[in-house]
Design a protein that fits this description.
Bound molecules: flavin-adenine dinucleotide
Largest sheet: 8 strands, parallel, barrel
Structural class: alpha/beta
Number of helices: 13
Strand content: 5-15%
Low-confidence stretches: none
Helix content: 40-55%
Order of helices and strands: HHHHEHEHEHEHEHEHEHEHH
Length: 305
């Protein structure tokens, strides 16, 4: 119930406007958001790299309502890719298609994302297309297949699959057949029972099944979770199937389970930290509270410190 409550709040425009504009709101977001500017994100990336972990940087924002906002967001990604290259950081980028203008004009979103993937390919980097709520699932997968099919883009663009969706196994089979890199996560939105598993045990069972398909595919995928059971299942399966630790990576969110991130590194696995930055942090932040409502107390205590 609390999860649904926080997800509903994440979609409230007035609260979002209020939170993002106030100093208290910005202070609250610090737990999960690296800062407001490209420089803030680069600083956090350098720190995380120094701890032996790679990074995926996300310029926060989604569901832009005009072409100008989409172009501005894409421009920040270009700056980010250039800075990563110049400063030799171990980082790629993650983006949301609705941030690239998918709701405004599909062609604009496709062209904008194509330009970013081309730039990433030119500097041997990578663009991960995040997965949003189910109204966008098919379109997002179509985009990723289309981007990947363009000459020179192979290995430079990847998708995200959510284990709570019942369709995910079929989607993974198609992505793997095309040679596309996948980030596997549980899924962060509120989805109806017709299309999504509702019980944690069912989501977890599907996650483990999908993880096995990914690891067996021979493609370098990302296993994104803070769930120790999922991590253990992945390590066990890799060991049993003779899949080396270098053949995949674990991924976690900035500010969550830093202890576990370091432990995984010490054990010799690859770990990538997803670093979000920007002024439009509210929906992302609320989804993090939805995953663990106890975070709300932590955040409030921090606010009054
Ligand atoms: C790198 C990365 C990228 C992601 N990209 C997407 C995406 O593109 N689309 C999408 O829908 N979702 C995305 N997610 C979010 C994901 O779908 C889940 O909502 C989120 O990871 C929580 O699920 P979990 O696997 O950690 O397991 P859960 O079962 O939710 O949690 C297991 C344990 O992990 C810890 N934990 C989990 N969340 C938190 C938190 N917020 N704060 C503190 N502890 C926590 C707790 O100890 C909890 O008991 C991404 C997640 C990661 C790590």
């Amino acid at each position: 119930m609390l999860r649904a409550f926080f997800i509903a709040l994440s979609e409230n425009r007035s609260l979002r406007h209020f939170a993002e504009q106030t100093r208290a709101g910005q202070k609250m977001s610090q737990r999960f958001v690296a800062g407001r500017s490209v420089e803030d994100a680069l600083r956090a990336t350098k720190e995380v790299n120094a701890l032996g972990m790679s990074v995926s940087v996300d310029n926060l924002g989604e569901n832009v309502t005009n072409a100008e906002e989409a172009k501005h967001s894409a421009e920040l990604y270009h700056q980010m890719l250039d800075a990563i290259d110049q400063r030799k950081l171990n980082a790629n980028v993650s983006l949301k298609l609705t941030h690239m203008g998918l709701d405004v004009d599909e062609k604009l979103a496709f062209d904008t994302t194509t330009a970013l993937v081309r730039r990433a390919a030119a500097i041997n980097n990578f663009v991960r297309v995040d997965m949003e709520g189910s109204p966008y699932t098919q379109k997002t997968l179509d985009f990723v297949h289309g981007l990947h099919a363009q000459s020179g883009n192979q290995g430079h663009v990847g998708a995200v699959i959510q284990a709570y969706l019942k369709r995910s196994e079929a989607d993974i089979e198609k992505l793997c057949a095309a040679g596309i890199r996948v980030r596997l996560c549980k899924g962060a939105y509120q989805e109806p029972p017709e299309i999504a598993f509702q019980d944690k045990s069912d989501v977890d069972a599907n996650y483990v099944g999908l993880m096995k398909i990914l690891l067996k595919s021979g493609i370098y995928h990302g296993i994104a979770t803070h769930d120790e059971k999922m991590i253990l299942a992945t390590k066990d399966f890799a060991r049993e199937a003779g899949i080396p630790a270098s053949a995949f990576e674990f991924q976690m969110l900035y500010g969550i389970r830093r202890d576990l991130q370091q432990q995984i590194i010490r054990e010799g696995y690859n770990m990538r930290v997803y670093i979000p930055f920007g002024t439009e942090w509210y929906p992302y932040f609320m989804r993090r509270l939805a995953e663990r409502p106890a975070n709300a107390m932590f955040v409030l205590k921090n606010l009054f410190r």
